[in-house]
Specification:
This protein is 8% helix and 51% strand. It has 249 residues and is mainly beta. It has a single domain, classed as Acetoacetate decarboxylase-like (Beta Barrel), CATH 2.40.400.10. It has a 7-stranded mixed barrel with strand order 1-4-5-6-11-12-15. The protein is globular and about 50 Å long. The chain starts with a strand and ends in a 15-residue tail after the last strand. The relative contact order is 0.23.
């Protein structure tokens, strides 16, 4: 299945956290980590954006436009290709049946409030727990662990053309692989101020809650057209984790 869409107001907020605090992706995927101060560090990315004109590539209509929030971790496949493991996707309630039935996506319902004044923006997301933040243009300062210069840092988090998802309550090892094609875009560095991180803390309870207020990096990209190809693959079922497993939220 091939879909086409445009992404607008895409805001990426990234954190570096101890790798052991993150849930393990399904084999044979592995977390994309970096060595920092003698420890393996993993990463978490929150992406807030507006999905504009999402439709089947073969049909001019119907098309859907809605706000969305993704929580994901960078991974590598057995060939070393960069991708992401989608932990959760938040969409408006009316999108949930379509996303679960057609795309078999791990979606939950949320209420979105986005306000913008020029390049500044404020997001509030209610999904059982609350997530709220303000974003404004900032400086592209160096952060630890260093991933290279600013364009390299942006590329590390954004240029991941393969996403892996598992539908909720799907224990048979079938995941969806989403291949994306999009243009390379500059990432405008952003400064983030959080109002509430309850939803993040509920999704990844083994990450120190204080860490959410200290992102590794954040940036916004210009609107862009995307093509997405969704396919089915079979991988071993997700390994059971104890305290490391993400909880519902």
């Amino acid at each position: 299945m091939i879909l086409e869409t445009s992404l607008a107001d895409a805001l990426f907020v990234n954190w570096a956290v101890p790798a052991e605090a993150l849930p393990s992706p399904p084999e044979p995927l592995t977390l994309d980590t970096a060595l920092h101060d003698g420890r393996q560090v993993g990463f978490v990315t929150l992406v807030l954006f507006r999905q504009c004109g999402l439709r089947l590539a073969a049909l001019p209509w119907p098309s859907l436009t809605f706000a969305q929030c993704n929580l994901r971790v960078p991974v590598r496949d057995p060939e070393g290709a960069a991708g992401v493991w989608l932990l959760r996707e938040l969409v408006p309630a009316w999108v949930v049946p379509l996303a679960r039935t057609i795309g078999r996506q791990p979606v939950s319902a949320a209420v979105f409030d986005r306000r913008s004044d020029g390049r500044d923006q404020r997001w509030t997301v209610h999904a059982g727990r609350v997530l709220s933040l303000a974003a404004r243009p900032g400086a592209a300062t160096g952060v630890d662990p260093r991933l290279g210069d600013w364009p390299t840092t942006v590329g590390f988090f954004r240029d991941r053309p393969r996403a892996w998802v598992r539908a909720p309550r799907d224990p048979d090892g079938v995941v969806r692989r989403i291949e994306t094609a999009h243009p390379a875009l500059e990432g405008v560095p952003m400064t983030i101020e959080f109002g509430a991180v309850d939803w993040l803390a509920s999704r990844l309870p083994t990450v120190d809650e204080a860490a959410w207020a200290r992102p590794h990096s954040a940036f916004q990209v210009a609107p862009a057209r995307l093509t997405l190809e969704v396919g089915r693959v079979r991988v071993p079922a997700v390994r059971a984790h104890d305290a490391r497993a993400a909880v519902a939220g």
